[in-house]
Design brief:
single chain, 71 residues, mainly beta, 4-stranded mixed beta sheet, two-stranded antiparallel sheet, elongated
Amino acid sequence: TLAVGDPYTEPGATALDDISGAIPVAATGSVDTATLGDYTITYTAADAATNVATATRTIHIEATVPPEPAP
């Protein structure tokens, strides 16, 4: 969860295969931190045998609420 205007840095993902070892992971999707809402990044990896795996990450952008003034 991020507040509107906070920076978002894509952390990426890794995939390991028993045979191929580390395999590339492609990320699709985007995050607009200027707009409230939920954003999904989808990660996809395929090994040499064309087995495909996917995973998702949801990023929630919410409004910030200023603290109430002290009495």
